[in-house]
């Protein structure tokens, strides 16, 4: 069908509807006299009812979409040589089926890998590496991994099928007899010993993973799979904990029963075989007593008990031999270095007891308490888990003098908190949780371990406390648009003032004043309500600078704030009764104040603290490191407003992440297959890659993790060696190659001014400005260099024109830059055809990003992409365009130009795999001009952020 | 400021957002299933708007342009739903993109994943013939925009939006039922 035909159908459709049903048919027959197909078409449209899919509420559709899908495999179906018999189990790690291996004639269990794995090549590769290692485990008490299967669109692990109940099933009937316990424990110890000898740790040992065959033989299940699935080879992460799952969908969350977790796992510390020894102790204890000593109603309570409490030793039955009591205690020491070091020792001990059953069974009640810590460990209650926030933190039960630094990582799942605020007394943490039933403030109590939504704070985020801790102020989303306060003693929320600008941050003084930033200015309003007044601040950064994140100092008169102008960012100090301000420290991100007297700011991802005189704003250096890997934030624009928060009592909370590990540059060949990956630098990554015209070099932006400074680097593709291309202390970025490959243009803000520069690609010679900008530039990004070498194209965004516009600037002097595409819409990513006559670009004019092409000299544009596209690239012959496709992936179209006419061929999907940053103004891919390869930035695994709570943070700082 | 846009967090913002939106959709859906809420489409849309507001850098997009936001949200919502549907589809069918046969009763909720994918396909086909009509449906259905808001977003009159909507509605409805008829 053609567009013309559709218009004709539409015209008749509307005209027919204006007639009564009685006369409609006759009219239509007349109107379509010589075209019965047209008539049928219109009639079929008129016949449609008003009860179709799109007339219904979308919510109903959503409801249908998110109900759990049915099992993937049906009995009788085949996966490679395996015939599926029935579903055995559905867990967070996927479905487990009983199946028949038709080749070998044996029964097996097949664990189907969840979608998250099969969709992520890196994770899959890591998983398969782990699986290969685990498949080498060969022990009669370890359920074997036979191999992996990848057939008929299903990937899975083929496992030994073990019949019989699990130990957990057996324990539902109560404790086991001592003799049987010892016999089973001996087998478990043997299995662990064998695995530990080959360097494999189970990590998730618990009764549910211990099968007992009808012959009384122990088989350990899922050996090492916690790590294989949890998927992070690189050590200390929340993922290093057992993979207990909730809801059967989300692997890797520490939820549900946490009762077999070792203290180091509960703390998110790195674990080794001693975690297995702890779990072995738990299992042994449970076999003897019928219950787990640390089990509790919620994960948080369980974690609290694990960290704090000794097991109830007197619950052990009197028949337990003394040697076994001692063994148990050595297995369950909280400090791993004090714990039994080798499971072989347990095996020997148990064997000895079995061999001499007359060993005395005296009871030892004199457990030393000297090592006992005065910490209560608490974790989020069920409420927080429902909100997707898993929180575990510690709080000192008594405000005794400092007894040492304690640091605790909190797994913060996908529903990132929008703002964290420590109460002044350090007993509670207020969280802006984005996604309960809606955004809302949640309150976590370190004392009770409870986390609950605070009624009356619906739509709220960015919380901050009143100085006495009795109330919380917060901002509601623009839909509601207020700064509010709520008294924790009860009562409805009180509207302090209206504020509809995004990204607010506030601070509340003992004098009853509130300072807040909203949009890009700082305002002052009484906490009792009123009209906010904008604060004039003389800081030399100009009217167009962005001022955010005011934080009151203890005297209630002075405050610090952050200002970002074209010269970069700085933390400055101001006072309520004066417009004068004073520079405190340069910082790209806002700072916070930690009582009694420290200003805290970020250097790269390092959180630093320096003593601040709160009236003179003099700092007393040097700045010292408080913590590493601190995130300025998460979720883009929100980032800079996610400040660390400190109590008056030495508690500090901040968000940690692994900066820069989010993306991975991967080469794809012309057939769309992965050909290689580019190794990322330590603590950072290469972004916005630009392939040289010859295809032999790649230039990219790279941030120094220490200084936070961006520079350009160039890789020799064949040798895979990176070398630094620019080294200016200003921010250099976004390389564009000249067509002969001899020069590179880039953006920089050196000297406090944005500008475009060029430099010889071999690094020789000086860096010459192409053009400089004086106005309030928000962002600048060169995108192409003309074939004749005479000008470069760039995107620019200014305070006056906040969207993107495409301009050109002459290289080599003289002429002022000229706008090419600029109006109410965003235009960006301009690229010239190899004859310089056509420009391809992205625009938001249809609402979403789409790719268009038009004559460079102007004229009608032609839409290239449908349903989303950005960042076009021409091939060297000018006959194809490659672009970034909505929903992830790279598409290509053939382009035929003749004179001023342009024809666009059908869309071909080149790569269907997800790429990062669809809405980003910087491309995260590039295509070789010869069409023989693509370089894509892809998501590299799933690295959730986390909140770290430090108790007595000053101790670390003072060291 | 140049640098802020590049923080790794920004570049991955959408990917970070997707699971979040998925989670929230699950929650909304539970509410729907238990009849706890009315007017679901508006809530779902508000959610995406909110998420989007937090996602997009105020300096990169003219955020004061509300209709622009709503339009982006509609696109995001469509994408989320289609992704969700495709994932489920792939789960069920072992990764093969097989169109499942549907009987008439299945239209409208029994097999929502297939419905969403088909609607998306039909919308793409319509876009090739008449882009504006497909945008009208996207904005109104996925974005929950009113006729007037849609008109503003597309820079056309409300009357045009209504006409487009009436026609596109019938067209899509016919395409969806026709396809199932063919498959049965």
Give the helix/strand layout.
The complex is a heterodimer of chains A (959) and B (184).
Chain A: H1 3-17, H2 21-31, H3 36-46, H4 58-66, E1 78-79, E2 82-91, E3 94-101, E4 106-112, H5 115-118, H6 121-135, E5 145-151, E6 154-160, H7 167-171, H8 178-197, E7 210-212, E8 218-220, H9 225-230, H10 263-266, H11 273-289, H12 299-308, H13 322-331, H14 343-355, E9 375-379, H15 382-386, E10 392-396, E11 406-411, E12 417-422, E13 428-433, E14 440-445, E15 451-453, E16 460-465, E17 471-476, E18 482-487, E19 494-498, E20 505-508, E21 513-518, E22 521-526, E23 533-534, E24 546-552, E25 558-565, E26 568-575, E27 578-586, E28 592-594, E29 598-603, E30 606-612, E31 619-627, E32 645-646, E33 651-656, E34 663-669, E35 674-678, E36 686-691, E37 697-703, E38 710-716, E39 721-724, E40 732-737, E41 743-748, E42 755-760, E43 768-772, E44 777-785, E45 791-798, E46 805-810, E47 818-821, E48 827-832, E49 838-843, E50 850-855, E51 861-863, E52 869-874, E53 880-885, E54 890-898, E55 901-904, E56 908-911, E57 925-927, E58 933-939, E59 946-951, H16 953-958
Antiparallel strand pairs in A: 1-2, 2-3, 3-4, 4-6, 5-6, 7-8, 9-10, 11-59, 12-13, 13-14, 14-15, 16-17, 17-18, 18-19, 20-21, 21-22, 22-23, 24-25, 25-26, 26-27, 28-29, 29-30, 30-31, 32-33, 33-59, 34-35, 34-58, 36-37, 37-38, 38-39, 40-41, 41-42, 42-43, 44-45, 45-46, 46-47, 48-49, 49-50, 50-51, 52-53, ...
Chain B: H1 8-11, H2 13-33, H3 40-55, H4 66-93, H5 112-129, H6 131-142, H7 147-154, H8 158-183
């Amino acid at each position: 069908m053609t567009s013309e035909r559709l218009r004709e159908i539409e015209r008749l459709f509307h005209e027919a509807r204006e007639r009564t049903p009685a006369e409609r048919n006759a009219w239509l027959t007349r109107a379509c006299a010589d075209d019965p197909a047209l008539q049928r078409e219109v009639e079929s449209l008129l016949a449609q009812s008003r009860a179709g899919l799109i007339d219904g509420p979308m919510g109903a559709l959503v409801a249908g979409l998110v109900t759990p899908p049915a099992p993937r495999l049906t009995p009788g179906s085949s996966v490679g040589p395996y015939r599926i018999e029935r579903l055995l189990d559905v867990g967070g790690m996927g479905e487990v089926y009983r199946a028949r291996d038709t080749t070998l004639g044996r029964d097996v269990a097949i664990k189907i890998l969840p979608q998250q794995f099969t969709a992520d090549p890196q994770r899959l590769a890591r998983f398969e590496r782990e699986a290969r290692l685990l498949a080498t485990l060969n022990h009669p008490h370890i359920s074997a991994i036979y191999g992996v299967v990848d057939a008929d669109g299903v990937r899975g692990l083929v496992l030994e099928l073990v019949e019989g109940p699990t130990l957990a099933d057996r324990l539902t009937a109560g404790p086991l007899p001592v003799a049987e316990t010892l016999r089973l424990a001996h087998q478990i110890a043997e299995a662990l010993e064998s695995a530990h000898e080959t360097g494999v740790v189970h990590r998730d040992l618990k009764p549910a993973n211990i099968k007992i065959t009808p012959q009384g033989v122990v088989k350990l299940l899922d050996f090492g799979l916690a790590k294989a699935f949890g998927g992070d080879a690189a050590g200390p992460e929340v993922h290093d904990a057992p993979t207990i799952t909730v809801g059967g969908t989300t692997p890797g969350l520490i939820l549900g029963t946490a009762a077999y977790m070792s203290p180091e796992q509960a703390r998110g510390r790195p674990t080794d075989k001693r975690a297995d020894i702890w779990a072995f102790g738990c299992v042994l204890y449970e076999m003897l007593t019928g219950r787990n000593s640390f089990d509790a109603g919620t994960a948080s309570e369980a974690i609290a008990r694990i960290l704090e409490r000794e097991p109830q030793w007197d619950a052990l039955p009197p028949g337990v031999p003394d040697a076994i009591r001692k063994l148990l205690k050595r297995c369950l020491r909280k400090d791993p270095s004090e714990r039994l070091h080798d499971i072989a020792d347990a095996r020997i001990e148990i064997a000895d007891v079995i061999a001499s059953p007359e060993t005395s069974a005296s009871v030892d009640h004199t457990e030393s308490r000297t090592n006992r810590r005065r910490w209560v460990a608490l974790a989020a209650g069920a409420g927080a888990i429902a909100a997707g926030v898993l929180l575990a933190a510690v709080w000192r039960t008594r405000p005794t003098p400092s007894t040492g630094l304690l640091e605790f990582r909190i797994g913060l799942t996908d529903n990132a908190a929008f703002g964290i605020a420590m109460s002044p007394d350090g007993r509670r943490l207020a969280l802006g949780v984005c996604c309960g039933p809606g955004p809302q403030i949640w309150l976590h109590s370190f004392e009770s371990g409870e986390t609950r939504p605070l009624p009356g704070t619906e739509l709220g985020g960015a919380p901050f406390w009143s100085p006495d801790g009795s109330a919380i102020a917060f901002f509601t989303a623009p839909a509601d648009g207020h700064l509010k306060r709520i008294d924790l003693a009860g009562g409805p929320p009180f509207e302090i003032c209206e504020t509809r600008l995004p990204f607010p941050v506030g601070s509340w003084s003992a004098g009853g004043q509130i300072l807040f930033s909203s949009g890009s200015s700082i305002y002052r309003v009484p906490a009792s309500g009123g009209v906010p007044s904008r604060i004039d601040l003389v800081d030399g950064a100009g009217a167009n600078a962005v001022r955010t994140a005011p934080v009151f100092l203890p005297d209630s008169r002075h405050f610090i704030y952050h200002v970002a102008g074209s010269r970069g960012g700085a933390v400055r100090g101001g006072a309520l009764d004066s417009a004068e301000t004073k520079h405190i420290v340069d910082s790209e991100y806002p700072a916070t104040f930690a009582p009694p007297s420290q200003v805290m700011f970020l250097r790269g991802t390092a959180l630093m603290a320096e003593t601040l005189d709160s009236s003179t704003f003099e700092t007393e250096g040097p700045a010292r490191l408080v913590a590493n890997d601190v995130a300025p934030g998460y979720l883009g624009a929100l980032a800079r407003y996610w400040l660390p928060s400190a109590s008056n009592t030495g508690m500090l909370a901040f968000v940690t992440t692994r900066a820069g590990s989010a993306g991975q540059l991967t080469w794809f060949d012309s057939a769309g297959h992965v050909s290689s990956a580019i190794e990322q630098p330590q603590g950072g990554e290469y972004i916005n890659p630009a392939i040289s015209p010859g295809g032999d070099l790649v230039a990219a932006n790279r941030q120094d993790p220490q200084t936070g400074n961006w520079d350009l680097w160039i890789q020799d593709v064949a040798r895979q060696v990176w070398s630094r291309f620019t080294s200016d202390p200003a921010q250099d970025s976004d390389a564009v190659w000249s067509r002969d490959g001899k020069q590179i243009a880039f953006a920089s803000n050196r000297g406090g001014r944005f500008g475009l520069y060029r430099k010889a690609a071999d690094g020789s010679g000086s860096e010459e400005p192409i053009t400089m900008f004086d106005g309030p530039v928000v962002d600048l990004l060169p995108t192409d260099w003309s074939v004749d070498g005479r000008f470069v194209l760039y995107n620019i965004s200014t305070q006056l024109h906040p969207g993107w516009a495409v301009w050109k600037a002459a290289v080599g002097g003289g002429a002022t830059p000229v706008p090419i595409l600029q109006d109410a819409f965003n235009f960006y990513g301009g690229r010239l055809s190899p004859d310089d006559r056509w420009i391809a670009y992205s625009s938001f004019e249809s609402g979403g990003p789409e790719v268009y092409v038009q004559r460079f000299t102007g004229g009608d544009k032609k839409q290239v992409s449908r349903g989303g596209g950005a960042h076009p690239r021409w091939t060297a012959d000018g006959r194809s365009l490659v672009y970034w496709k909505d929903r992830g992936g790279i598409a290509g179209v053939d382009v035929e130009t003749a004179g001023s006419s342009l024809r666009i061929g059908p869309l071909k999907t080149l790569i269907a795999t997800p790429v990062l940053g669809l809405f980003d103004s910087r491309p995260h891919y590039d295509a070789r001009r010869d069409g023989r390869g693509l370089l894509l930035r892809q998501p590299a695994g799933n690295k959730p952020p986390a909140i770290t709570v430090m108790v007595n943070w000053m101790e670390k700082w003072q060291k | 400021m140049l640098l802020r846009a590049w923080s790794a967090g920004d570049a991955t913002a959408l990917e970070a957002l997707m699971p979040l939106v998925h989670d929230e959709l699950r929650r909304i859906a539970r509410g729907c299933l238990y009849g706890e809420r009315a007017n679901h489409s508006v809530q779902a849309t508000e959610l995406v708007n909110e998420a989007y507001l937090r996602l997009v850098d105020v300096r990169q997009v003219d955020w004061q342009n509300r209709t622009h936001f709503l339009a982006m949200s509609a696109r995001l919502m469509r994408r989320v739903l289609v992704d969700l549907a495709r994932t489920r589809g792939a789960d069920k069918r072992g990764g093969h993109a097989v169109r499942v046969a549907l009987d008439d009763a299945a239209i409208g909720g029994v097999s929502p994943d297939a419905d969403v994918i088909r609607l998306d396909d039909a919308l793409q086909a319509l876009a090739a013939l008449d882009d504006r009509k497909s945008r009208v449906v996207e904005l109104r259905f996925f974005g929950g925009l009113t006729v007037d808001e849609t008109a503003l977003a597309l820079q056309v009159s409300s009357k045009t939006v209504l006409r487009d909507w009436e026609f596109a509605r019938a067209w899509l409805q016919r395409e969806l039922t026709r396809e199932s008829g063919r498959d049965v």
